[in-house]
Design brief:
Layout: H1 5-32, H2 38-60, H3 68-93, H4 97-119, H5 125-145, H6 150-167, H7 173-197, H8 208-234, H9 237-243, H10 246-258, H11 265-289
Helix pairs in contact: 1-8, 1-10, 2-3, 2-7, 2-8, 3-6, 3-7, 4-5, 4-6, 4-10, 4-11, 5-11
Length: 293
């Protein structure tokens, strides 16, 4: 039975909004569990994501046979996404959510440059302008704070390379993430077990609220991703491209107005360049889509 396109589109918008809103407000969760060291929290994120992803893969019948090369590429992407998760947790725990939001603002622009370098994709003039504005904004922040905004750059480039690697692997999104977490799982399970045996861990040793928060790490990891995959099946990539800026925008507002991270003149100038880059990027997409460019 063919689904009504309008119903499918509305469902896709609902899934997409749910995913990006969830990711946008996720820092609240990571702040709540900030008393747990970042590496331990990362381990629990993997430990509890594995069974949940297994259920989603089974439910969606998302398993497909993969060759040896695919598993090798997924090993690389596992390392990239694990690094991305860890640095994001560190950013929130060290009150650098503003810098993390900067990373996710510039991530699509980094992905464009990586596509040009590795996939020989051609950038249009408006894309070059967006990239140059982002470079100026990042350079200004580097100069103003006396050092590279490494959290923003690591988040942008690890996720950019992650997308590049995953683009070359013929695997469902859920299946790929499931395999990636399985590859990381032995280290995560061993780490959690060692921390428990030595009395240095927090699970089952720091109160029921901490236990529940750590188990919830699996939900934080898998549920928005499931919503995102449902959205991508129903919506054009252009729509997804616009919606992806919801998450860093919410994170930015949380950082400034809830967590009260400093946002002085130097950061305002840097973010103005970044926001201008985003505006040029999105405006160019709209014009290209309407064949006015």
């Amino acid at each position: 039975m063919t689904q009504d396109p309008q119903i499918e589109r509305r469902a896709g918008l609902a899934y997409g909004l749910a995913a990006f809103l969830f990711w946008g407000f996720a820092p609240i969760y990571f702040k709540a569990v900030a008393h747990v060291p970042a590496i331990e929290l990362l381990a629990h994120r993997i430990v509890w994501a594995v069974p949940m992803l297994a259920v989603f893969v089974w439910w969606q019948r998302a398993w497909r046979p993969l060759d040896r090369r695919a598993f090798g590429m997924l090993a690389v992407s596992a390392l990239l996404i694990g690094t991305n998760w860890l640095v994001y947790i560190i950013a929130i725990q060290t009150d650098r959510l503003l810098e993390a939001s900067l990373g996710y603002y510039i991530n699509p622009l980094v992905s464009m440059v990586l596509g040009m370098i590795f996939l020989r994709e051609r950038l249009r003039p408006f894309q070059w302008v967006a990239v140059m504005l982002a470079v100026v904004g990042t350079g200004w922040m580097t100069w103003a704070q006396g050092g590279l905004p490494w959290i923003a750059l690591v988040l942008a480039f690890t996720f950019g390379f992650y997308g590049l690697v995953r683009k070359t692997v013929r695997a469902e999104s859920l299946q790929g993430l499931f395999i990636e977490t399985l590859m990381l799982a032995p280290f995560a399970y061993a780490g959690v077990a060692w921390l428990y045996r030595t009395g240095q861990g927090h699970f089952l040793q720091a109160g029921i609220s901490t236990d529940l928060l750590l188990v919830a790490a699996g939900i934080v990891t898998t549920v928005p991703l499931y919503w995102f995959t449902q959205a991508t099946r129903r919506l054009p990539l252009t729509t997804i491209g616009f919606m992806q800026y919801l998450a860093p925008s919410i994170a930015f507002l949380l950082a400034v107005f809830v967590f009260e991270e400093p946002f002085g003149g130097a950061r305002l100038v840097a973010f103005t360049f970044i926001w201008s880059a985003v505006a040029v990027y999105l405006g160019g997409i709209l014009l290209a889509q309407k064949h006015l460019y």
